């Protein structure tokens, strides 16, 4: 398994490329601000051919470069339908004051956009990626798991020592606690968590030290409708 990444742009959003091995096909996860050059560098370094871009959610810092990256390689982008509108209207994911900062910028969908569903298994680039719908940060937030390798791309659901913010449009604190309880807490302790920002961690480390996972634990029983 080859996983390589870098923090992109002013937001330092982690962008990853994932492949069975060097010299093979790959997927790209969350190409954020000014990520195209970094992606190209990783593709050349590891001799990779991308077949898709997969997006953990629609916030601008995670999708900024999705259209140029997809367009340059003629590959589709995958996103949950509840966040698809953010590809062409990223300001809808921010407060009115914050959205004004991006008023002079124009964004559009890639030519080929495909929609994710909870529990789907994406068979891409020789990988099997399980899609977990994990709302709370946004309505369409998802995480991606590689069960065969105990790896989780958590987006802005779970960070080392923290979780994603819930004060932007589409965010909801009780909902993110349910997502943590139902999608993170059941995973093995040695599951490696590759988050949207900051360093990697493990489920075991977060279970033991992350106060938000401790708060989420009572929600780990039967889930309510989201």
Automatic annotation (TrEMBL):
<keyword id="KW-0378">Hydrolase</keyword>
<feature type="domain" description="Metallo-beta-lactamase">
    <location>
        <begin position="12"/>
        <end position="197"/>
    </location>
</feature>
<dbReference type="InterPro" id="IPR051453">
    <property type="entry name" value="MBL_Glyoxalase_II"/>
</dbReference>
<dbReference type="InterPro" id="IPR036866">
    <property type="entry name" value="RibonucZ/Hydroxyglut_hydro"/>
</dbReference>
<keyword id="KW-0862">Zinc</keyword>
<dbReference type="Pfam" id="PF00753">
    <property type="entry name" value="Lactamase_B"/>
</dbReference>
<keyword id="KW-0479">Metal-binding</keyword>
<protein>
    <submittedName>
        <fullName>MBL fold metallo-hydrolase</fullName>
    </submittedName>
</protein>
<dbReference type="InterPro" id="IPR001279">
    <property type="entry name" value="Metallo-B-lactamas"/>
</dbReference>
